[in-house]
């Protein structure tokens, strides 16, 4: 008898809709199997032939953490291109490499955690490099382009499944898992949500990752906005993946819940589908979910909803249709096209900030290239490993010839003398093949921090010249003559073992401290503190190591000052290019915010030395964030983010004029730290932040960037379209160089009834024009682009009146303007007698912050510590009259009620409750009629939820 072939289960049938197939597979999974799927590392279900699956593959500007890959410019550099189509092609290339790498290594995941769409509200944020722009419109345009490239254009199967980071209002690394971002409704809807919403609505997003921080007192991993907003923007299933360790933070650091079972249940109910916690070990999450089920905090239906969303992504990725998946045999990796695209992106990301005619460089000039970044191609935390490498020095050698280029790094070179008169010495290095290398030997690329098979540093009578590299704020790196950085491994010994500073905890940074700063130490020398461990360096018989019991006192003997080397080559050159900036692992990165906009003092000294020796000095800033530099005495200044593998070639081609620069600043460059708000002030409206509201004079404005030619803007026309406005104008290249221009369209409400942006980006277009060529640009704008969030009615509203439309080359370089008058929707007074007021729906505030009304949903308002807070609700209609106010609050304190800023008309005192979520409604006499501005003054640690009126 012939054995019958078992029927194909419906979930394996590619002819069925995904929804039916998901239903079938879900029904076949046991409860234990479904629970196990909730961890990042979902195990295989062998009895069904279902493979293991991992959420999460970093791919911010190339495939990260998985070895060699094409490295594109940092995300902020991609934002500086203002080129949606280019960024789409970058996303396409990255996703192709994800697929190609997965074909040979199944650890590479197809659920990519990128892009980052957090807005670059504050330039001191350590992760500035990861975002695209301070503007929500530009951010969403670039993010949409990148996700479309990552997703691919097949109607059913996705090349990769992108997840947006980090939901929501996340702009600080300082105490990032315990700080709360106070986000008023207008800022929430007009600013923070906008970048996410437009990208999700475009249809190429698989989900989001919540951020570590809290918003309005509630952790993002239990945010009601996931259901109230995110999942209403699309009819597709969206996967919500937790950030690493964040589920445990709900109890361990945030103390928001008492038990992990409560926290896990709350996260699942809020919409989290995949828990990234405890590495590859899913047992703790499984135990917590089981415990939550046993306690009745969750139901199987809740588990199924999360698993269903995971399966939806896996089906879209073609996992269950390997023969039909059009992306399954992708082999595009490090192709000539990808290498050319990396160079194109690096070129388009360069922003010319100032040029008095020195650039482009004349043929045949002798160039001195100097500075700490001059011969560096720096990577960041989310980079892949370089296959190809190009530094500014190498690019200039290639472009102008080595005989026309001189180089001085500008580092201080020192010997460290011990208290016994000997010197720190770097011993001979032995590589994996036991080949001995001298101090001048070539750097073995396999040398990485953490190696313990290399000999530790010793001391001897002559010592080794070390490059002392000062990155500012007291942080130093020390490098041996062959390029190896001093690093400390787990055994505590100091070795020359790192090719670059890096790692989650950087083990290559040090601080010099006066010897007298440590109790019991004397003399004029210095202690050398290792930042990664916090301990001091000591000298022992078995080698140099971290051992705090006997720290060594070192004297620094300078064998060469960096300024001297810079001045020497600058004097002999026709033009000097000073390459300054940051190392992305030091002073500003994930886990660490910056403290200042200033360029590090050592780099300022190098710049001054170059400028004093040669007035024809170009400053090329290569950095992950803006700096406050004085360009007055500099004839030319450029900026580029770290540009990936082609950074040096791109910079050299722009300096030489082979490519005319056309990048534009994606965020405001402020003139000084005094222009910045507090890092934790998330109220961009009240704090007058970003180009939208900033009233000072920026160093360089949002959208700024020059070219090697000039452009004329003409014939601005506005006509009514079907659902909005059609705006058109002509751009002409009036110079002699072919180049790109980035045309920008802004708007402002002329006589707004509430604070509105000084101007707001509505559209942009990057276009290429040859000399004398013109192009007519047309933009169709929905009227919704001119709306604001009206807190009085809890929705967007188009205010009637005049709106100015402005076209130009930056937010401040406006060339054309016209005014249109729109009918809109008139404002109506708040019907407070009938509906009362939510405290958080204020128009203005002083010294307050928004907190969670309950752990599940809603907002309340509390005064800042030791301050009297005030809320203003404009246009409150008390009708024919009220005689009583009822205040709903928790905690202890006083609420005073007044009208139009006058004297207090009612005072309500709260005696205090142990539970901050135990609200009490207390009434008081209060007489008012007609329309007034309501003022509420808050004192004491209370939470004000609502006020109502009667009588």
UniProtKB/TrEMBL annotation:
Keyword Signal part of the UniProt annotation: yes
Residue stretches making up the Fibronectin type III-like domain: 741-811
Domain Cellulose binding type IV: 830-951
A GO molecular-function annotation: carbohydrate binding
The UniProt record lists the keyword Hydrolase: yes
InterPro entries linked to this entry: Actin-crosslinking, BXL, Cellulose-bd_IV, Fn3-like, Galactose-bd-like_sf, GH, Glyco_hydro_3_C, Glyco_hydro_3_C_sf
UniProt keyword list: Hydrolase, Signal
Pfam families: Fn3-like, Glyco_hydro_3, Glyco_hydro_3_C
Example GO BP: arabinan catabolic process
SMART domains (alphabetical): CBD_IV (SM00606), Fn3_like (SM01217)
SUPFAM superfamilies: (Trans)glycosidases, Actin-crosslinking proteins, Beta-D-glucan exohydrolase, C-terminal domain, Galactose-binding domain-like
Recorded family membership: Belongs to the glycosyl hydrolase 3 family.
Function: Catalyzes the hydrolysis of a non-reducing terminal alpha-L-arabinopyranosidic linkage in ginsenoside Rb2 (alpha-L-arabinopyranosyl-(1->6)-alpha-D-glucopyranosyl) to release alpha-D-glucopyranosyl (Rd). It is not able to hydrolyze alpha-L-arabinofuranosyl-(1->6)-alpha-D-glucopyranosyl (Rc).
PANTHER family per UniProt: BETA-D-XYLOSIDASE 5-RELATED, SUGAR HYDROLASE-RELATED
Entry protein name: Exo-alpha-(1->6)-L-arabinopyranosidase
Organism: Streptomyces olivochromogenes
């Amino acid at each position: 008898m012939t054995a019958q072939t078992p029927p194909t289960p419906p979930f394996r049938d590619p002819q069925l809709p995904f929804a039916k197939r998901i239903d079938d597979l879900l029904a076949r999974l046991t409860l234990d199997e479904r629970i196990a799927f909730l961890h990042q590392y979902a195990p295989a279900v062998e009895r069904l032939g279902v493979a293991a699956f991992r959420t999460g593959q970093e791919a911010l500007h190339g495939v990260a953490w998985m070895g060699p890959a094409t490295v594109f410019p940092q995300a902020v550099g991609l934002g500086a291109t203002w080129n949606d189509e280019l960024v789409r092609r970058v996303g396409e290339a990255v996703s192709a490499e994800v697929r190609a790498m997965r074909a040979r290594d199944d650890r590479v995941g197809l659920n990519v955690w990128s892009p980052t769409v957090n807005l670059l509200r504050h330039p001191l944020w350590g992760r500035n490099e990861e975002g695209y722009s301070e503007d929500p419109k530009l951010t969403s345009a670039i993010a949409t382009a990148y996700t479309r490239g990552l997703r691919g254009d097949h109607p059913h199967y996705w090349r990769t499944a992108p997840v947006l980071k980090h939901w929501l209002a996340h702009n600080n690394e300082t105490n990032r898992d315990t700080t709360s971002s106070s986000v008023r409704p207008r800022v929430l809807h007009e600013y923070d949500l906008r970048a996410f919403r437009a990208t999700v609505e475009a249809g190429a997003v698989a989900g989001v990752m919540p951020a570590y921080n809290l918003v309005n007192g509630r952790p993002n991993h239990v945010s009601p906005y996931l259901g109230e907003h995110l999942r209403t923007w699309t009819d597709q299933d969206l996967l919500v993946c937790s950030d690493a360790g964040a589920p445990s933070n709900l109890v361990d650091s945030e103390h928001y819940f008492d038990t992990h079972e409560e926290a896990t249940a709350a996260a699942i109910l809020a919409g989290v589908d995949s828990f990234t916690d405890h590495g590859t070990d899913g047992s703790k999450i499984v135990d917590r979910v089981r415990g939550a089920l046993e306690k009745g905090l969750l139901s199987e239906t809740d588990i199924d909803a999360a698993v269903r969303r995971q399966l939806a992504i896996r089906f879209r990725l073609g996992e269950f249709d390997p023969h039909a998946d059009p992306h399954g045999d992708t082999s595009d990796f490090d192709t000539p096209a990808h290498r050319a695209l990396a160079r194109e992106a690096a070129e388009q990301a360069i922003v010319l900030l100032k040029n008095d005619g020195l650039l482009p460089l004349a043929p045949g000039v002798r160039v001195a290239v100097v500075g700490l970044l001059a011969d560096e191609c720096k990577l960041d935390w989310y980079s892949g490993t370089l296959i190809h490498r190009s530094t500014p020095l190498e690019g200039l050698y290639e472009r102008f010839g080595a005989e026309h280029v001189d180089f001085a790094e500008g580092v201080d070179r020192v010997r460290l003398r011990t208290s016994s008169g000997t010197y720190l010495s770097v011993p001979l290095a032995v590589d994996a093949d036991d080949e001995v290398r001298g101090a001048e030997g070539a750097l073995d690329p396999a040398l990485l921090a953490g190696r313990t098979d290399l000999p530790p540093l010793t001391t001897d009578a002559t010592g080794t010249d070390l490059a002392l590299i000062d990155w500012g704020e007291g942080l130093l790196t020390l490098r041996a003559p062959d390029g190896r950085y001093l690093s400390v491994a787990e055994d505590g010994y100091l070795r020359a073992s790192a090719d670059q500073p890096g790692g989650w905890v950087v083990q290559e940074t040090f601080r010099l401290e006066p010897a007298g700063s440590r109790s019991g130490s004397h003399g004029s020398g210095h202690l050398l503190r290792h930042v990664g461990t916090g301990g001091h360096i000591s000298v022992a018989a078995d080698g140099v190591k971290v051992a705090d019991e006997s720290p060594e006192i070192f004297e620094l003997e300078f064998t060469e000052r960096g300024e001297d080397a810079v001045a020497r080559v600058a004097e002999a050159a026709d033009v000097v290019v000073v390459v300054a900036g940051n190392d992305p692992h030091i002073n500003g990165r994930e886990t660490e915010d910056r403290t200042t906009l200033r360029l590090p003092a050592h780099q300022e000294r190098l710049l001054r030395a170059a400028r004093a020796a040669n007035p024809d000095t170009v400053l090329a800033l290569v950095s992950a964030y803006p700096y406050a530099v004085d360009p007055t005495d500099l004839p030319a200044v450029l900026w580029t983010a770290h540009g990936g593998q082609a950074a040096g070639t791109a910079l050299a081609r722009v300096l030489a004029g082979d490519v005319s620069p056309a990048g534009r600043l994606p965020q405001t460059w402020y003139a000084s730290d005094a222009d910045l708000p507090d890092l934790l002030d998330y109220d961009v409206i009240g704090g007058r932040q970003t180009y939208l509201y900033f009233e000072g004079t920026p160093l360089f404005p949002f959208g700024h960037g020059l070219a090697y030619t000039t452009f004329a803007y003409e014939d601005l026309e506005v006509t009514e379209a079907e659902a909005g406005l059609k705006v058109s104008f002509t751009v002409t290249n009036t110079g002699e160089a072919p180049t790109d221009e980035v045309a920008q369209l802004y708007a402002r409400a002329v006589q707004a009834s509430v604070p509105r942006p000084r101007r707001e980006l509505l559209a942009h277009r990057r276009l290429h024009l040859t000399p004398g060529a013109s192009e007519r640009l047309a933009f169709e704008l929905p009227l919704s682009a001119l709306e604001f969030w009206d807190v009085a009615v809890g929705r967007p509203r188009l205010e009637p009146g005049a709106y100015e439309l402005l076209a130009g080359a930056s937010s401040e370089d406006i060339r054309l303007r016209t005014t249109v008058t729109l009918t809109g929707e008139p404002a109506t007074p708040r019907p407070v007698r009938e509906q009362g007021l939510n405290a958080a729906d204020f128009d203005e505030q002083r010294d307050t912050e928004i907190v969670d009304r309950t752990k599940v949903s809603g907002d309340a308002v509390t005064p800042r510590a030791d301050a009297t807070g005030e809320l203003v609700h404009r246009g409150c209609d008390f009708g024919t009259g009220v005689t009583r106010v009822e205040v709903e609050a928790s905690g202890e304190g006083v609420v005073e009620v007044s009208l139009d800023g006058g004297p207090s008309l009612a005072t309500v005192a709260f005696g205090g409750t142990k539970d901050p979520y135990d609200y009490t409604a207390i009434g008081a006499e209060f007489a008012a009629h007609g329309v007034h501005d309501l003022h509420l003054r808050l004192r004491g640690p209370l939470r004000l939820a609502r006020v109502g009126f009667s009588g």
